[in-house]
Amino acid sequence: MTDSIKKIGIDLDNTIISYDDVFQLAANKFGLLDNNNCLSKESLRNQIRNQKNGEKKWQKLQGYVYGEGINEAVLFPGVYRFLWRCKERNIDVEIVSHKTEFGHFDSKKISLRDSATNFLINHGLLDNKNPLIKKVTYKNNKKEKIDYIKQNNYECFIDDLEEIIFSEELEGQKGILFSRDNLSVKNSNNVIAQSWEEISQSVLGNWSLDEVKNMANLISNNTEVESIEKLKGRGNSAIYKLHLSNANKSALKIYPEISYHDRLGSEFKSTKIFKELNINNVQRPISFDSSLGIATYEWIEGERISSYGIKELKAALSFLSILHQNSKAEQFKNFPMASDACLKGSDIEIQIKRRLLQFDELSTKYSDLEQFLKNDFKPLFKEIISWSQASWPSSSSYIVPIEKNELILSPSDFGFHNSLCSQNENLIFHDFEYFGWDDPVKLISDFSHNAAMNLTKEIEQLWFSEVSEIYGKHLLGRLSAAWPMYGLNWCLIILNEFKDEVWSRRCSSDDSKSNLRDEHLATQLAKSKNKLNALAANYKNKHYW
Q: What does the alpha-carbon distance between residue 320 and residue 336 come to, in Å, rounded to a whole number?
């Protein structure tokens, strides 16, 4: 699509600006909800509309959120980076929004249009010096908006409303529906995307090296980037090797744009603290740009580990021990929780159910996946959950979080797959995107189950034995009850490439995979089946320490 696009239009509310949390907070503030449960915008709207004078209450709430409450809103993850890429490619971007001047029943007469424009200015999209958006146009209603879109004949228009994208008046125009629901495409001219990362891939395609170079120069600390090369096979994030004008090298990381966890923040902040505390054997941070979702780190001359033994395990244990010894440092006091932290048994169960629900929605597209989940995974899931609940130690509780003093600093996605053997044969650990406070049982279990590790029985047994010296043998009861649950979770993690957005990220970081999806999915399904079978065979008789 890229070559032909010179001008695109984008909706504003719930497309560029995310009000997800604002509606919830505002509804609670005005006493419009019976409880404080988190609801989607659609569920919240329906609940309010069903109340007495519900439509009036909803319109008043909207007026507040889009006016006075807009300062609590945020940009959707990935919006800024998409607009920056459009600017780089000389694509003109116009915002077209149906927005009245004032909200319904607003006695304060706060201009909704001025509020929105100021939001865009404050978030760097309408900067006077170098604006990422060429023009903002407001229309009073959807009809005026559709007419305007038709008149301007955009090569592509992006909106969160089906009635805009699938409007008969706009038939034949390329449209992208921004929706986090699984919907079906209604005609060949339209695309449905669940994230701005997907939109970026659909509209702009893969990153060009010139794009990456220009972006890297923005955070290169006055040192020019002379050349770059992309590294393949690096998981979710795209990694580039930068050759700098001062003869040094660094690594540029382009993070996936997601909302539920700040990967860049976790990694850059944690590695910065490591440096301050003289915790070695980790990749050092250099610079970052949170708006673009990028960071640079020191370049490590080394080899990825293809085989490992006791020496490598000892290095991993040594790092965890040092990290544990420094866990009371002031710098870590207010550090966030690790991504997908699990502080009680029911947290693990909920996480599995959440993943399973996602795959249930996908399984109709993949009959083999559907059969595996129905006939193999779900029966064992039911069996293991029942066993784990009954096996949970009496000293703790399946439904009660562990005490704060039991939490540890966890790298989360920790293992030899995220390490390099340096030229002096030291192990250097990297990838701290999920770093934060967590239950040590989760770290111990994930290390054992991680599909990228494939531990031998000897190394796994040594891992259990040695890690107990760091975190304490009192964990055994909770570990034995939780370990099979984490195994189930990993059976589903292995299947993540069945999700379109995950596969898109994999291809973005390594475009050689793009034509091999069927083969890759078959391989991943086989891996998940093998892991499930192994889990079924030994979870009741697993030996730890």
A: 18
